[in-house]
Every structure is written in structure tokens, then in C-alpha cells.
Design brief:
Blueprint lengths: L13 H7 L3 H22 L3 H24 L5 H28 L4 H23 L8 E3 L3 H17 L8 H15 L4 E3 L12 H16 L1 H32 L5
Antiparallel strand pairs: 1-2
Helix pairs in contact: 2-3, 2-4, 3-4, 3-6, 4-5, 4-6, 4-7, 5-7, 6-7, 6-9, 8-9
Amino acid sequence: MSEDQELPATQPHQGRFMRRGIYLLPNLFTTGALFAGFFAIVQAMNGRYDLAAAAIFVAMVLDGLDGRVARMTRTQSAFGAEYDSLSDMVSFGVAPALVMYSFALKGLGKLGWIAAFIYCAGAALRLARFNTLLEVQDKRWFQGLPSPAAASLVAGMVWVAADNHFKGADLRWLAWGLTVFAGLSMVSNLKFYSGKDINLRKSVPFMVVVLLALAFTLVSVDPPIVLFALFVAYGLSGYVYWLLCRYRRHRDKVLPKPE
């Protein structure tokens, strides 16, 4: 189950589920995300790393839509949640690991596939932990780097390198470090902002729309570099927030309390 897909409040009986079948619309987006992840693996095997990386970003967009569509249309189901979780493991666990391994880590031998496995295992553990803590965790925060963000971090580096004609061998140690960083960040206890407290149905000031238009313009200037920079910033945000919290706790201990 991804960070956007949630189980319904009440689970239908199994026999009723078999009679009703499955909801088409949200699972159509999930299938599209699964296809994009599989497509990324195929393109990496063919040496088309730019297409492979772009496909992972497409999977991320589709994965962000399926849960929201399910909630908006009230078509949430236990089947959709399980299907979404399996799709995420392919698109954001296996695909990024194999794309990065094929692009830059293969020449490192055992160290290369170990880094790819750390990432893949981190994604699996991240998804499993999210499923078990779904009902108790604070909706405003993700515990650990979300798997779509980690996948975009890895795929973003591949996309930037391929788009600027870098060879994977030239960046293999940077790729190794980034892959391990993404994998370990997913299983960390760091908090990353989820954005789930943003109400899309609420009216916003006109300037917000202007800023969104400027953001889309900025991305269009150089999509690989801009998107990669955004996800690097997001990947570091959890560590920055952790440092700020430690600083505040230390400050509160040092400063005397007002009488």
C-alpha cells in the first residue's frame, strides 16, 4: 500500500467482494503505475536509461492519483490497497534498484548489487511498516522517506546523467552513495512532511496559483535537473527537521524556564 492509498473504514465480506468484483477507475491508475515500473526495467535492459528514469516519474504521478481518485469516488477497497502495495514494490522498489544497477553499479561487482539490494529491501520494509502503522501514525508526517520519493531520487540521478551524456562508470561511487542513502532513509525513523493536511477543496489566495504556474515553468526549463534537485531537497528535509528538533530540545534544556 502506498502513502496515498488507504483501507476503507469497513471491510466488505469476502463473498460480497467476489460478487461485486473490483472498482475499475482507481485500479486503472494502479495498473498504469505498475506498467510504468515494468517499462522502466525493460528500457534499462535495453540501455535507454533516460526513458527508464522518466517512466519511474510517470509511475510516481499515477501512484499519487490512484488513492485520491479512490477517495474522491468512494471506491476504496481492500483489493485496491493490496494491489497498490504490490505495484509500489515493483515501481518504487525493484525498478529503481535495477535501473541504477544497470546504469552505474554493475561495474562495482558485489558492492554494486549489495547497494541495489539495500535499496530494494528498504523499499519493501518501508511499505510493510507503512501498512502496519497506517491507523496510528500522524497523517501529516511520513515515518521514513516515502518509497516514491526515494525512487524519484534514484531515477532523477540516472535521468540527469543520461540527459547530460555522463557514463555510469564515471558516477558509480556517487550512485552507490545515493542508492544506499535512499534505501536507509526509507527505513529510518525520520519525519518527512506528507502534505496530507492540504485541503484541495479550500479556496487559496491568487498568489498561490501564480506560484504554481511559476513552478511548472521552472520544471519545463530543464525537467531532469529541476525534478532531481526538488527530490534531493525533500530527501534532506527529514534530516534537517531532525536536527532542528534536537537543537530545540537542547535549547529548552539550557535556557532557564520563566517563572
